[in-house]
Model the fold of this input.
Amino acid sequence: MKLILEHSEAIFDLPEKGSLLIGNDEDCQVQINRPEIWGRHASIDVLSYGLVLQAESSPILVNGTSISSSCLVYPGDKLMMSDLMMRLVDDDYVPKEINSLQQFNHNERPEDMSSVFGLRQLFGEQNGAFIKSDYHHKDGWKVYRTDAKLALISNNHPVFVNGRQVHNTWLQNGDRLQYKDQHFNVECPGHSGYSKFSPSHPRNVMLSESMSEADIKNSHKKSLRPHYWWLTLLTGLVLLLLIILLL
Done:
């Protein structure tokens, strides 16, 4: 993973473990000499579950959103500190170019929203929505679905995948698309990288179904629970009556 300072040739490698320090201290790997940048202004921590931006001072913007403490960051995200724009790039990402565009149906089809497809919009009016059919951006670039695969036709627009600008390429599960201020995530059902937090993830669907079946099987065991209070009362009355009779 790399952090690229846009409009310059500065490129910084993130460590396999540990942190990339950003600021004007001597021990910072990313040196920024600006009066509004303090000592260790921020860091990007490489953890087992992902990359975490730690904001030690402000202002720091991630994709236009102000960050005051910490947040997860992903390839393609843009970080703004002072007047400098930085971009995270997955240097292991190798786009697979589409050789022929004839296989795609260019007829305009309406967008269907679903929670089980693979292209999820982040931020914006349709934040969190999944797109079930082909996606046609108003500026002209498109994402087609064919044989359970997604193909990006950029039409020479500056579309970035995992931080790299691409042109007519196949998309893979887990890829992050970025166009201007719009971000999308590729989450294909049935694949290992499909969001495990989604309720439509196959594992979560199976878990939900198994829990429902277990509830049905055990329903007869729970049928007396609503009546425990009056059963206890009845038992107490019987014991009281026996004591009175014995006396």
The two ends are 86 Å apart (CA to CA).
